[in-house]
Give the backbone structure.
Amino acid sequence: MDVTTLPTIPQFFAGRDIFLTGGSGFMGKATIEKILYACPAVGNIYVLLRPKKGKGIEERLQLLKQESVFERIRRDKPEQLDKLVPVAGDVSVLNMGISEEDEKAMENVSIVFHVAASVRFDDPLKDAILMNARGTREICRFAEKLKNLKAMMHVSTSYCNPDWHDIEEKIYPPYADWQKTIKIAETYDRELLDILAPKFTSFQPNTYTFTKSLAEQIINDFKEKLPLILFRPSIVISAVSEPMAGWIDNFNGPVGLLVGCGIGINRTLYSNPDNVADYTPVDIAVRAMLTAVWKRGTQEPIDRLPIYNCSTSDVRPTTFDEVVALGKELSPQWPFDKTLWAPGGSVTNWKMYNYVKVILLHVLPAIIIDTALKVSGQKPFVLRLQRRIYQANQALAYFVLNTWTFQNKNLYSLNEGLQDCDLRLFQFNFEINTDVRKYFSSAILGTRRYLMHEKDEDLPKARIRFQRMRMLDKAIKAVVYSLLSYYLIVRLEIVPMLVRITNTNMAQYMN
């Protein structure tokens, strides 16, 4: 097909109404921002929101518009934000809780993005099924009512088939019947399902991967009825360049590891140091998503269900050991204002050794620091934070101790044949090859700005604090090593004992 006869990506989105779930999440916000900025003629974007923490959907939308992700839109194209329309609902309930009035308002929607999901690994099985599996069925049923639907994208995960280690861009055998599973979740209580969870989920690592795999089966079963796309990103983290270099709004993946090392509280990571940390910058994922939607909406697909593994580790593999090393290397340049100790730490796949390091390097210092905070009249928090880090590391253990290969031929084919104007806005291949050190440097600076809310003008003070922490760390280590040496040599008489053993062995050898 001659792509020059096809509309460009902005032209394809022009005038189209969009419905999006998960708009308050990381990928959802980035998707909305890119569409509004790069496709200025787009119609309304209907965002599914539910009241939360005493705030209604209108108030939540106004707060969303003020977030850092929309900074360049507020600066360059503020009128675009008026295209965001809140829709009251909840993916985890039947019909997504959408009223007849809102359904009527969205009758001209022609593109759907299903980004919403519970990404908690420890969700009760019942909750995970209703959110991730039944929610997917409900949005498919909603999409069936849309007469002008051109494309619907379901955002899955690269890790929803974890017992397969060479992941192709295809549907894998189901772990359970999705219809029966939803019925069970609707029938039985949370406690009973949690008891049966290990057996029922085929001993999957957690309820997240199990229910996301069920969602893929649902998408596969609707492929004859809807123009669907299945998109599987790996761990999605900081942006390379859009909307701003280093932008991020969560501590997931390697960025959380860098922050933990950077503020000095993460001294050990239970992982295989040689395993690749498979991450995808959020702007690369979003560019690929929008290109996939354009392709689905303008070209007859070879496969009724196009599948894309959005994984980039085959192009620039970075191991967990290298991520930790980068954190140590970059910390002096971009230290955090809230640094508690000099950065350090290492990666180990020896469980007992990691446990000992957690006790000595995480728990004991946390108790000391929290005690000092209490004495000074401040609120203690370090031990609680260390508990969360330990729990997160344990939850991720299956994934950081194993390794996967993701085939992504379909993903890289998306950039082929794009017109020059689309390549400038939506090409992602060149972004993938970004220098790793430069990327993580930008990621740490972005974390300072957008997660820690620290100001660039405070960097000089942070660097002075960092140097003081490093000198204190060296001084304390010198004292500890000196005391330990004294105890071993003088108190336990290690040296005389070694001399006696050596003399005895030499005597035996001479005789």
